[in-house]
Design goal:
Number of helices: 14
Strand content: 5-15%
Largest sheet: 5 strands, mixed
Radius of gyration: 29 Å
Order of helices and strands: HHEEHEEHEHHHHHHHHHEEH
Structural class: alpha/beta
């Protein structure tokens, strides 16, 4: 019986909607990778994904991965799309791609598929989010790009990434914080719990002042939730300007709260200082005798 050579490859090409790639038989004859299969591709023929949501790659971890690749090889192939003859673009697996270059490999195992620009963006975003390897702000930006550039609703976005819609909404809310706080969250200076509590503080200056005090004084999430509740609609003044001022002895959170409560009641910037033994002083500024009398009247009542 006569074999129908290339029928499977031609059918696959038709299904995938790209006849320019060629049939399996033609690909074998031209030594061209077939769409829908894994091949060894030259690293020099692959360009990075312009839609990659990750902006930073830890160099130490990349070199650790490179060492692993030197000993064990690529365990999971990267995914690429074909642009033209001998030219491919990464869809996913940029860490493996970069580490393979460091390891000095000439080729890498890659699964070849077809994707347009919108699909490239969506696949790159979803793959990284599902790996949970991004920091909270990168995840939030990825959700935002899915919604704005891929034209998805929050509900559709949550379905794509397999997350609850509330989870998506909470991440998106992080992008409302001032840039410095977003940077602090990205760098691990504060946790997502700290950031979510700060969102409830309406005043941006107060948000930043609480953020500075979290970093310098090591406030817990519960501490910040209490501060956010107390100063949701009022001004919070930073207690420590820099580390040098704070080097004597950081104030316990309960003392910080007392100082802020008193400042708010007296409408003065009250300062509380204490040493390691617990001794210290409370400083209440006043402008004149009338102002001083008003302070005493408030305290006595």
């Amino acid at each position: 019986m006569t074999k129908k050579r290339g029928s499977l490859g031609r059918g696959l090409s038709a299904i995938l909607g790209n006849t320019s790639i060629g049939t399996t038989a033609e690909a074998k004859q031209e030594n061209t990778p077939v769409v829908g299969k894994t091949h060894e591709i030259l690293l020099t023929e692959i360009e990075t994904n312009p839609f990659q949501p990750r902006t930073e790659f830890n160099q130490k971890k990349l070199h650790e991965l490179a060492l692993s690749i030197e000993h064990l090889g690529i365990i999971q192939p990267i995914t690429v799309r074909k642009l033209k003859e001998n030219k491919y673009q990464l869809i996913s697996g940029e860490r493996r791609f970069r580490a393979s270059k460091i390891a000095g490999l000439g080729k890498i195992a890659a699964f070849v598929r077809i994707a347009n620009d919108q699909e490239m963006l969506e696949m790159a975003l979803v793959e990284n989010i599902q790996r949970e390897s991004l920091n909270p702000i990168e995840i939030a930006l990825s959700y935002q790009r899915l919604i704005e550039e891929v034209k998805l609703t929050q509900e559709q976005c949550s379905e794509r990434v397999g997350k609850n819609r509330t989870t998506v909404t909470n991440f998106l809310r992080l992008l409302k914080l001032p840039f410095e706080i977003q940077k602090g969250l990205s760098d691990g200076k504060i946790s997502t719990g700290h950031a979510r509590a700060l969102i409830t503080v309406r005043n941006k200056v107060s948000q930043l002042n609480i953020f500075y005090d979290i970093v310098l004084n090591g406030y817990s999430v519960r501490d910040v939730e209490q501060l956010a509740k107390d100063f949701a609609n009022s001004n919070y003044k930073r207690t420590s300007k820099n580390k040098a001022e704070n080097s004597h002895q950081p104030l316990p959170f309960q003392h910080q709260k007392m100082m802020h409560d008193l400042s708010r009641n007296l409408e003065k910037e009250v300062k509380l200082k204490r040493n390691k033994k617990g001794k210290g002083k409370l400083i209440i500024p006043f402008n004149n005798d009338e102002d001083l009398a008003k302070i005493f009247e408030i305290i006595n009542n």
